[in-house]
């Protein structure tokens, strides 16, 4: 830093300090508040996170990696990734459609739709799981026997397609599932419960953004003869790009980490319907503390990666709005 | 037409002759995890030698009542191995998944192994806990799971009830005693294993009302100096029961192997493994072999003292039963 720049900086900082003195509280208040804030962060975030890693490595690196060689752990990881890979795109499509409809159009029942989107935030995840048990359970409204009858026509058609030579690998599994559909205590139930709890993330992120951007650009595009799809793809999409990423990242984090709702519909079959968070609980209950914390640390790592991505997106987002504003 | 029938018949034969892969799902309660890991491997070996088929048994564990509820809701269990007969009765009551007389299908009321309830206390027994009386003293913190969801907790509850009924002479006094006991319970976990971790790992509570096998497992995992097992003057003979879930096995075509799976629990190997995992074998030969590892205590059965599970459930644990009365009043 050159001398003149340093002088300039110190000069500006004294003016800032002078103005601060008149508007801010006494130093001890500021120090206390900062200390409380820091203590809170350390106590509630940093320490637990550190303890997860400390416990995971307590018996050394070999024991740590041993936890991931267990076939049940790998099955849980696969299931978690599969669930996320279905839930996130589903919510992406739904979220964009809903936000687009709510922000750009006026229609009857709009406020009801907004409330419905918020519903998964409002109810406990346990209730989210129970909803599906009450619907698809053996004693539910749409029990397995009814599911079988309902899917029977589709099962016949898909079976015929699967029997065409060369298509069996693609449709065989689907045909089997349709012939004996299993929803709760199986993968479809876990996916449904995950979609339910992650429902609001994308839509909630986009609605305020789209509303603040207004309709002017879209109107201009339509006046110039663009179709609805062209308007969305060339006008709306670039505007919401970073908000959309942000929503996807949050949705992804929650989908991987969901415990409550998934626990209710899982049935806890080892190697089959246990997701990573459920697997952590099982290991802990079996006194395999290193394994439990090792798997937990994997989830924590996923969370940290998510947070880093989130910061990057936020940074890019603020830059893109700044350049748009200038 | 004839040739088609012939071909399909020979195909069926060929399939039958080939080794099959069979999958069973055993829905069980909390403390049996370690036992069934060993038992499933033993059974797979036995079944392979006998039939040539490979059988893989998948496990699901949790509080016994909760697990029974999941099967009622459609969890496709070929067999259930739950903490008490009443949780299997629930499968009959809701949807007739098993016949009413399911308990008569296997020897010993369908309980291949039994257990009891003991007290686990901190090493050296600092509060000098000796019997059920000591649990209601002010300042003693007792850990037990929720009887609404956990089988072990229902055995705990009834054991305490019977102790008080004997000592103080009436049902009313027994109810007061149990009410006082539950005032000393700071946290009700949903299953026995949750309570074990609360007491053992998190260090909450002075006394843990535990399955005998769970108490021995805690000693084995954490060291004999950390905890002491205290044997009360009287306790209950806990009979964890097993059953084939008829509706599921008939649909999946697994009745034969599922039945064999449960019957093998009564075999020498099954009984020996049960004893090794601190369950009391029902076969006298193995009961004698493992007698020295178990505590000597006077045990009463639920049939003698409470008129069987259906009755006990109705009076104590159903909605509005004595547990609701004392716990809601708290």
List the domain count of chain B as a whole number: 2
Can you give the mean pLDDT of chain B?
A: 90
CATH topology-level name of the largest domain in chain B:
D-Maltodextrin-Binding Protein, domain 2
Overall 3D geometry of chain A?
Answer: globular
CA gyration radius of chain A, whole angstroms: 26 Å
Weakly predicted, low-confidence segments of chain B: 9-16
CATH architecture of the largest domain in chain B: 3-Layer(aba) Sandwich
Q: What's the β-strand tally of chain A?
A: 0
Number of domains of chain A: 2
Task: Please tell me the CATH architecture of the largest domain in chain A by its name.
Answer: Orthogonal Bundle
Supply the number of helical segments of chain A.
15
Strand content of chain B: 15-25%
Structural class of chain B: alpha/beta
- State the distance separating the first and last CA atoms of chain A: 29 Å
Radius of gyration of chain B: 22 Å
CATH fold call of the largest domain in chain A: MetI-like fold
CATH superfamily of the largest domain in chain B: Periplasmic binding protein-like II
Question: Explain this structure to me?
Answer:
- The complex is a heterodimer of chains A (326) and B (330).
- Chain A is an all-alpha fold.
- Chain A has 2 domains: 61-137 and 185-326, MetI-like fold (Orthogonal Bundle); 142-182.
- Chain A has helices at residues 3-23, 27-56, 61-66, 71-104, 110-122, 125-136, 144-163, 168-179, 187-198, 200-213, 216-223, 228-257, 260-266, 276-285, 289-325.
- Residues 1-15 of chain A have low confidence and may be disordered.
- Chain B is of the alpha/beta class.
- Chain B folds into 2 domains: 19-111 and 239-293, 3-Layer(aba) Sandwich (D-Maltodextrin-Binding Protein, domain 2), CATH 3.40.190; 115-237 and 297-329, D-Maltodextrin-Binding Protein, domain 2.
- In chain B, 49% of the residues lie in helices and 17% in strands.
- Chain B is built from 16 helices and 11 strands.
- Chain B has helices spanning 2-17, 33-51, 64-72, 85-93, 107-110, 151-168, 171-183, 192-201, 212-222, 246-252, 255-263, 268-276, 284-289, 302-306, 308-317, 322-329, and strands spanning 21-29, 54-62, 79-82, 113-122, 142-143, 207-211, 227-230, 234-238, 241-244, 280-281, 298-300.
- In chain B, strands 4, 5, 6, 7, 8, 10 and 11 form a 7-stranded mixed beta sheet that branches. Chain B has a 4-stranded mixed beta sheet with strand order 2-1-3-9.
- The N and C termini of chain B lie far apart (76 Å).
């Amino acid at each position: 830093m050159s001398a003149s720049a340093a002088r300039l900086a110190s000069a500006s900082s004294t003016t800032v300090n002078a103005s601060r003195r008149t508007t801010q509280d006494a130093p001890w208040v500021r120090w206390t508040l900062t200390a409380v804030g820091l203590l809170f962060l350390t106590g509630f975030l940093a320490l637990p996170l550190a303890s997860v890693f400390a416990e995971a490595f307590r018996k050394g690196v070999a024991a740590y990696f041993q936890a991931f060689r267990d076939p049940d752990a790998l099955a849980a990881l696969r299931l978690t990734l599969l669930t996320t890979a279905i839930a996130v795109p589903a919510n992406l499509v739904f979220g964009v459609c809903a936000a687009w409809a709510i922000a750009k159009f006026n229609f009857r029942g709009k406020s009801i739709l907004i409330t419905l989107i918020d519903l998964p935030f409002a109810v406990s995840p346990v209730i989210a799981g129970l909803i599906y048990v009450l619907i698809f359970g053996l004693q539910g409204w749409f029990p397995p026997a009814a599911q079988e009858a309902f899917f029977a026509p589709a099962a016949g058609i898909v079976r015929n397609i699967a029997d065409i030579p060369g298509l069996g690998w693609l449709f065989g599994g689907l045909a089997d599932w349709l012939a004996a559909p299993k929803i709760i205590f199986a993968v479809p139930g876990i996916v449904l419960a995950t979609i339910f709890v992650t429902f609001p993330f994308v839509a909630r992120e986009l609605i305020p953004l789209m509303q603040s951007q207004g309709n002017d650009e879209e109107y201009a595009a339509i006046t110039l003869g663009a179709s609805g799809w062209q308007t969305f793809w060339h006008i709306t999409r670039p505007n919401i790009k970073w908000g959309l990423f942000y929503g996807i990242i949050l949705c992804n984090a929650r989908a991987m980490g969901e415990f409550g709702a998934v626990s209710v519909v899982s049935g806890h079959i080892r190697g089959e319907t246990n997701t990573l968070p459920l697997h952590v609980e099982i290991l802990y209950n079996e006194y395999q503390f290193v394994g439990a914390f090792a798997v937990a640390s994997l989830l924590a790592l996923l969370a940290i990666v998510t947070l880093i991505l989130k910061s990057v997106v936020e940074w890019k987002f603020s830059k893109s709005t700044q350049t748009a504003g200038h | 037409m004839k040739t088609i029938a012939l071909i399909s018949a020979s195909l069926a034969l060929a399939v039958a002759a080939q080794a099959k892969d069979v999958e069973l799902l055993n829905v069980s309660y909390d403390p049996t995890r370690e036992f069934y890991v060993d038992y499933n491997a033993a059974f797979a070996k036995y079944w392979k030698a006998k039939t040539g088929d490979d059988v893989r048994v998948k496990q699901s564990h949790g509080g016994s009542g909760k697990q029974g509820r999941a099967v009622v809701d459609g969890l496709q269990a070929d067999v259930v191995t739950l903490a008490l007969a009443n949780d299997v009765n629930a499968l009959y009551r809701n949807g007739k998944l098993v016949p009413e007389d399911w308990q008569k299908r296997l020897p010993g009321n369908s309980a291949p192994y039994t257990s009891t309830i003991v007290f686990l206390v901190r090493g050296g027994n600092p509060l000098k806990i000796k019997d059920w009386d000591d649990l209601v003293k002010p300042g003693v913190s007792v850990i037990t799971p929720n009887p609404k969801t956990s089988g072990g907790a229902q055995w705990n509850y009834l054991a305490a009830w019977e102790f008080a009924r004997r000592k103080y002479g009436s049902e009313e006094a027994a109810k007061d005693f149990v009410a006082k006991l539950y005032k000393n319970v700071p946290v009700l976990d949903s299953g026995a294993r949750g309570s074990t971790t609360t007491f053992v790992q998190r260090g909450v509570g002075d006394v843990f009302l535990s399955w005998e096998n769970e108490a021995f497992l805690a000693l084995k995992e954490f060291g004999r100096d950390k905890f002491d097992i205290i044997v009360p003057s009287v306790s209950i003979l806990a009979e964890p029961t097993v059953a084939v879930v008829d509706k599921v096995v008939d649909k999946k075509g697994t009745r034969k192997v599922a039945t064999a799976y449960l019957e093998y629990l009564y075999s020498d190997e099954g009984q020996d493994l049960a004893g090794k995992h601190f369950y009391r074998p029902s076969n006298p030969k193995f009961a004698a072999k493992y007698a020295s590892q178990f505590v000597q205590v006077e045990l009463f059965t639920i049939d003698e003292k409470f008129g069987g599970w259906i009755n006990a459930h109705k009076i104590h644990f159903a909605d509005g039963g004595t547990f609701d009365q004392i716990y809601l009043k708290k």
